[in-house]
Amino acid sequence: MTATWAGQRARPGTVGTGTIRADAIPKSRGDFAFSSDLYADGMLWGATVRSRYPYARIKSIDFSAAAVMSGVRCVLTHHDVPGRNRFGLEIRDQPVLADDAVRYVGEPVAVVAADHPEIARRAAEAVAVEYERLDALTDPRLALSGVGPDLHDGGNVVAHHRIRKGSAEPAADVVVRGVYHVGTQDQAFLGPESCLAIPALDGGVELYCSTQWLHIDQDQLADVLSLPLDKVRLTLSGVGGAFGGREDLSVQAHACLLALRTGRPIKMVYDREESFFGHVHRHPARLEYEHGASADGCLVYVRARILLDGGAYASTSRAVASNAGCFACGPYEVPNVSVDSYAVYTNNPPCGAMRGFGAVQSCFGYESQMDKLAAELGLDPVEVRLRNAVGTGSAMATGQRIDGPAPVAELLRRVRDMEPPAPADSSTCDDVLMPGGAANTTHGEGVRRGVGYGVSVKNICKSLGYDDYGTARVRLSISGGEPVAEVHTAAAEVGQGLTTVQAQIVRTELGVRQVVVVPADTRVGDAGTSSASRQTWISGGAVRAACEAVRDRVLRIAAATLGAELSELWLADECVRSERTATDVPLAELLGSTNVDETRVFRHRQTFPLDPETGQGDGHVAFAFAAHRAVVDVDTELGLVRVVEIACAEDVGRAMNPPAVEGQMHGGIAQGLGLALMEEVQVVDGYIQNPSFTDYLIPTTLDMPPVRLSILEIPRDDSPYGLTGVGEPALLSCPAAVVAAIRDACGIDITRIPVRPEIIAGCA
Amino acid sequence: MTSFVQPVGLDEACEAKAAEPDLVPLAGGTDVMVELNFRRARPHGLLDLTRVPELREWSVSDGCWLRLGAGVSYARIIKELGGHAPALATASRTVGSPQIRNRGTVGGNLGTSSPAGDALPPLLATGSTVELVSVRGNRLVRIEDFFTGPKENVLLPDELVAAVWLPVGRGPQQFSKVGPRNAMVIAVAALATALDGESRRVGVGLGALAPRPIRAVEAEDFASWALDWDGGSGIHADVAARFGALVAGACAPIDDVRGSSAYRRHAVAVLAARSLRWAWQEYRKDKSCG
Ligand SMILES: Cc1cc2nc3c(=O)[nH]c(=O)nc-3n(C[C@H](O)[C@H](O)[C@H](O)COP(=O)(O)OP(=O)(O)OC[C@H]3O[C@@H](n4cnc5c(N)ncnc54)[C@H](O)[C@@H]3O)c2cc1C
User: Which residue of A has its CA nearest to B87?
Assistant: First the structure.
């Protein structure tokens, strides 16, 4: 470290200070431009023809009627894909436009461009696709057992991960078993898929879009379009939420194909219904568990078999299945482990990344089991968790020693010891705060209170040997007599507050007041994905490294100019300060018209693939932990739930922007509550039954309770500023805690989320 | 879409509808616009009723009938009519969100005639009457005769809903609905109960429990008979349970994404027993005070 930042920490807009996001006010006022607001002169509108069947052979596509409609500019099918008609994050197995067969309802078959969106939609309806229907495979258990058609070469098992640790035949005093199910959750981001593709003079394309990872889109698009990378240029537009649902391509390839064919800008926007077919969902899961413990409640073994339905294409199923397996035992010391986690192909909607990424499903399983174990042993649910909680130095199920902070016991104690909310009182309490909300269903009849706990663990950053890095460019120049730092990365701001954090880092490192975060695009190096709770760590690390390089150059310039030793110079208050002479030289004076421009790449420490037979190995960079306490009122006769309060304790390493950390926690809790109680894409025989916000229910303000947060900041020694990723942990054990509280209130076993009122009321 | 007609009076609206019967009336638009957005409907034209002042008025005649214009919003019903139409006001509070309640109307709820329309059980429970209007004149239709099937009703192509007539001041009323979310939810089961102290009748209207909104006549008869109107003693648990069972028996619910038929029956039985108690409690209190 060459510079001091004493006295700078408390400066507004630096790391650790509450900093208002530049997008906060425009977003609340409705002024923020999302990618669905993009516009270009002369643009055409794209629309998509989608499969009506879960599984069918395409016999013919007749678009003659559509092509001659007035205002229709072109209709494209798989014959018009110049490059490779496949995309995918792990395996390129998904057609851009279906060729021989369709494998799920809603799969894109053709795209249309027209002068007006309504003409485009009508033309899409007029495309006649002749199908030969095939027997659909929609039961993941059949897919696993090998029954039914192979949907892809190599069979229907996309992933099978094994973890074997300790003895194969461990002996335990008590054994609890359970089978649990998690329904399909949708990311339900508010901004539907949208983009604008503009053909460029050099034969390439400029794409403005919403995504979580510009460079992986670019890479796939270049192959699809058969263009060199430098002719596929992407710029991030206003992203209306992501949660994993924007990792896979949606509109991007279609819009580029249409733009290159018509020579006109193409705009595509899905409506809400199409959006349900336009992105992957959270994998529905079936989890079989057996836990063995000693009489005093110490875990002896965990056996688990986890089956994830990956749907028609691979997306990120391999990594999700791996995560579900790696975290199947939770944040507990378990000497003997046998876990098999699978993902299979079916003719259901494709599933992939969503906040929590496999660890959410497992958490519902293992935390349900911990409660069962506590009940079996007559122990308090928190106590049984405390007896088994991992700490620094403990081994995870994969054998990896936790070398960073692991304050699991502390987090549990914190939520347990928070003051409980006031008891329900129907005479004084506003009726909208009773189960049933404003709908006048109870005046206290049938209402019982319950309390439940959950604790969770998840990896932060990419795992299993993946070469994960971020790139940042920082440029310091003088403008209007003032130093201005410009920071440029390809890291996607998806609403998490990344832009603000980048600016905070620059202010902290360079001490300049004016920081401009330029739009993310592919003109700068890869930033990696805005997922896995990694972006502040990785791109934040790259920004800091670039700032250090800029500072170093500035001080070298100063040393040369002033004839001073490098070691006696500091950067502070927009000046270079000499310790020896106690003089300040303003940056404006020192740099004049010189620009200092540095680009740096940041990598987290190396990880390694797990042993394929035993699943043992140092596969992860870091582990994050959170604990939840849920308090619910349940109308046990009607099966209605009102969550009274959720408390969450989380170790964040360093709260870079404290209100943003709280925001992530509030949001994670809301999404977890939604999964526990109402959010489910209902799929029957491959058909989504509720593709709209009329029937895909997300929590409203009347469903979201007050939240109590306890934020620990135990710094890591391997991350920038000691931070840990905060995007996911607050969701993970929220569903488990809510369900535990419902069980506590009504005494019935609940094995599936979302919990439906009929289950609680006992009349499924 | 070829036409957008904006009459400024009821006569003009009727004339427009008679001239072009396939014009789709537009009140708050909270159903119509959803149909358009989802492209389930591509109407030939719209008849905007929001500038027809007659539809936005309500009045009480002789202290016993409330005439509620078809275009009065839920927000106004909540604010202005809690005393005259308590069940309808409670139902209005449960409709959608503040935005929907600012725009949505009872006329629109009748126009859509969804089996789950929240304004409809209170109209059934209170024995209300719908007033229809056309260039041919006005006619009155009893609410239980208004619905003919799921999203079907007796409106003729040239007719509009002018108003609804609700009896007022007859006794306590309750409305309750069940859904898997605490707000902004389509009813999985809804029930309105209205006590009429003069005629000693209990009215029950049900939503989301049959192909159309219905009354539970047997349950009404039973409760009207079983309640101790003179003595005003409390409701025996058996009476409440029997009432609940009869209400459930009147239903013909479906299984769908929102809930199972078994749950719908169960939930309405619970709600019925609870709301009869609440209404009766209030009745006894009013009686002892009055
Ligand atoms: C987000 C959301 C939430 C909702 N929640 C609920 C809810 O909780 N409960 C509920 O019951 N409904 C709900 N609805 C549906 C809707 O708000 C109601 O049905 C409302 O009463 C419709 O009234 P409107 O004035 O908006 O009708 P419009 O949409 O204008 O019209 C509805 C129908 O009635 C016809 N119509 C309107 N006025 C007349 C008239 N005077 N004469 C003849 N025909 C007429 C129209 O042609 C159309 O067919 C919701 C809708 C949305 C979008």
Answer: A440
